From TrEMBL:
Family: Belongs to the TAF6 family.
Name of the protein: Transcription initiation factor TFIID subunit 6 isoform B
CC per GO annotation: SAGA complex; SLIK (SAGA-like) complex; transcription factor TFIID complex
Organism: Glycine soja
Keyword Electron transport: no
Keyword Nucleotide-binding: no
SUPFAM superfamilies: ARM repeat, Histone-fold
Length: 389
């Protein structure tokens, strides 16, 4: 027997203008009405569960009707549950307690804020254990003293919220000693056997990842103030090379700090002060280092090689740059491969040779050092061009 009484069917029929519905018809229609109601409610419950809710709303019923290609019920747009009240004096009669709204109050009410469009954004929660001070993270003002681990803050609804403090980057005593020893060897004993062993350790040790930001800052600082110290510059580039070879560390986040130092050792006007300083060898070594960086991390930073080639090409085409800078730019472009030489060097070769040839001739360039530099540049051009063949 249907739980929908025939009286309900008769009342609904009268509401739509059918006044002479027989009792037998109402009794036969009631089970079908119950079946349709159960079907709609089952779909509505599915919509509720997919929405990760435990309360059935009118929106869920509208969604179920839509799935069944049935016109939704208008007038029940509330997202919350409906509040039914029992009619006084009637055991089985309920009604919805709707609040009477004055039309004047609705007209005079201020407009609500426009809803924001749904969007997805990303930000750093922490970088190497340190929480950056950005709007998406908890501001420093709401965080308690450093001695506390957590702070309980009260929201508007008086619910406690735990705010975690930024995690400080703490090195172990062993790593601090390791870093200090490698830095000391780099600064003062770059020709020693111990420094070579340190380079091997930098390239193979699996526990050095916490030291990467410290080595990065150390290299950047020493290169910026040590351009007159050729042994130091070469030692620093060898440290960079060893760090890049280490498969156990993730150096990608620090490339933006390393690249300026590496490019400086490639296209700087002067590297060292003594005539015995073989800065040509340092530029050759750095050129191959730059090429290995582009080959290894080009897929991670899509604009890495394009920005680098733009920098080198500008140094190569600038007639105000020194020949040593032209040499570094040519070696860097040549190390990037024959395609770069074909696209960037060859189209500008004829114009550049008009600038270089006078510097190579004894009749026009009396300075022997300048002539030597010009011939080194010429040799670098020949090597790069022959790479195409």
């Amino acid at each position: 027997m249907s739980i929908v009484p025939k009286e309900t069917i008769e009342v609904i029929a009268q509401s739509i203008g059918i006044n002479n519905l027989s009792h037998d018809v109402a009794l036969a229609v009631a089970p079908d009405v119950e079946y349709r109601m159960r079907q709609i409610m089952q779909e509505a419950i599915k919509c509720m569960r997919h929405s990760k809710r435990t309360t059935l709303t009118a929106d869920d019923v509208d969604a179920a009707l839509n799935l069944k290609n049935v016109e939704p019920i208008y007038g029940f747009a509330s997202g919350g549950p409906l509040r039914f009240k029992r009619a006084v004096g009637h055991r089985d009669l309920f009604y919805i307690d709707d609040k009477d709204v004055d039309l004047k109050d609705v007209i005079e009410a201020s407009l609500p804020k426009a809803p924001l469009d749904t969007a997805v954004t990303c930000h750093w929660l922490a970088i190497e254990g340190v929480q950056p001070a950005i709007p998406e993270n908890a501001p420093v003002e709401v965080i308690s003293a450093p001695s506390d681990v957590k702070k309980h803050e009260q929201k508007d609804d008086n619910l406690p919220v735990d705010i975690k403090l930024p995690v400080k980057h703490v090195l172990s005593r062993e790593l601090q000693l390791y870093f200090d020893k490698v830095a000391e060897l780099t600064l003062s004993e770059s020709d020693s056997v111990l420094f070579k062993e340190a380079l091997v350790s930098l390239a193979t040790d699996s526990g050095l990842h916490p030291l990467v930001p410290y080595f990065t800052c150390f290299i950047a600082d020493e290169v910026s103030r040590g351009l007159n110290n050729f042994p130091l510059l070469f030692a620093l580039m060898r440290v960079v090379s060893s760090l890049l070879q280490n498969p156990h560390i993730q150096i990608e986040p620090y490339l933006h700090q390393l690249m300026p130092s590496v490019v400086t050792c490639l296209v700087a006007k002067r590297l060292g002060t003594r005539l015995a300083d073989n800065h040509w060898e340092l530029r050759d070594f750095t050129a191959h280092l730059v090429a290995s960086i582009c080959k290894r991390f080009g897929h991670v930073y899509s604009n890495l090689q394009s920005r680098l080639t733009k920098t080198l090409l500008n140094a190569f085409l600038d007639p105000k740059k020194a020949l040593t800078q032209h040499y570094g730019a040519i070696q860097g472009l040549g190390a990037l491969g024959p395609n770069v030489v074909r696209l960037l060097l060859l189209p500008n070769l004829e114009t550049y040779m008009q600038l270089l040839e006078p510097e190579m001739l004894l009749e026009k360039q009396k300075n022997e050092l300048k002539r030597h530099e010009a011939w080194r540049v010429y040799g670098a051009l020949l090597v790069s061009v022959y790479m195409i063949d």
